[in-house]
Specification:
Number of strands: 14
Shape: globular
Bound molecules: pyridoxal-5'-phosphate
Order of helices and strands: EHHEHEHEHEEEHEEEHHHHEEHEEH
Radius of gyration: 20 Å
Largest sheet: 7 strands, mixed
Number of helices: 12
Helix content: 40-55%
Length: 360
Amino acid sequence: MNDEDFCRYFIPGPTWVRPEILQEMTHPMISHRSGEFRELMRRIIPNLKTLFQTKQRAFIATSSGTGLLEGALLNTVPRRVLVTTCGAFSERWLAIAEQLGVEVDHLSVPWGQAIDPDLLATRFTGRRYHYDAVTITHNETSTGVINDLKALAEVVRNESRDTLILVDAVSSLASAPVLFDEWGLDVCLASTQKGVAMPPGLTLFAVSDRALQAAEKKPYRGTYFDFLEYDKQTSNDGSVFTPSIPHYYALDRQLDAIVNQETLEKRWERHSQMQRMTVKKLEGIADLAAPAAHASPSVSALLPKHKSAEAVLAEMRARGYTLGSGYGQWKQDTFRIGHMGDITLPSLEAMLDVLREVAA
Ligand code: PLP
């Protein structure tokens, strides 16, 4: 590995991007209505479906992930949504749903905890309301907690066949298993600057048949994220609006690297190994803020034992390493390590060795 490839950048997104992926973004411009663009789409979409583990449909929007949080609600929720929250990013669904003026129920657990599937089930007992959708944030980036998406989705599916499951997989896609079809998800979205290890600018999303049918019944779906338009244009290997074409070149190459070269299983395993290495190396130095059973494979929020989080971050910066600060109400007490995307075990190990010295 040469020096340029050696990562010293460990924030939980945007993550480090391999130089050859950045290089893909320098292709000369083409039209998004051209045959070349359609060819690009014909290569990208099958790999994108594999990334989401779906045979249904996968789309690309030129937007950050937040756009699709709004888009998912706009397309699928005519009346009432149940929002589950366990930290800052899951609370974003709540803010958007309230802003859209739909009826919102809120299931919240304290920061640092995962959503308990049994607790979710209680929201369906007695069936006081019908929920058009439930929102789940798979990996809560502010606390480093990964929710058991499979178990949560199972609860919703068992309790209500026609409640849609809307999933924010911004910091889990390509880092942890996200089995869209097998788990019965309906909308699942992720921006590209985390586990996919590309520059920010695109959001990738999968939409189920059920979700598309819900969108068909909804008179107002907004303009920019109208799922019916995405379905129509993507079916013809096209794009709804002028997309960020440089990102598409990078996506083509990166999806091939993830799906066909590294393979998803190995990528998920590498992320688990990075999580375990982080905890092991920092024993006695910093505690994981998340419960071990829900420790995120992509981001660790850590409570330093001997120095303030601010001092740890500043000293690491002085040594040439960028780590993530704590987020929101955890800003003072924690710092975060993003171990996601294309970060390698040797890069992470080298950084953790320095961190051990600095935080001791
Ligand atoms: N959801 C999660 C879990 C996130 O971590 C983030 C960003 O860090 C977002 C949503 C917002 O994504 P974006 O910044 O791409 O809009």
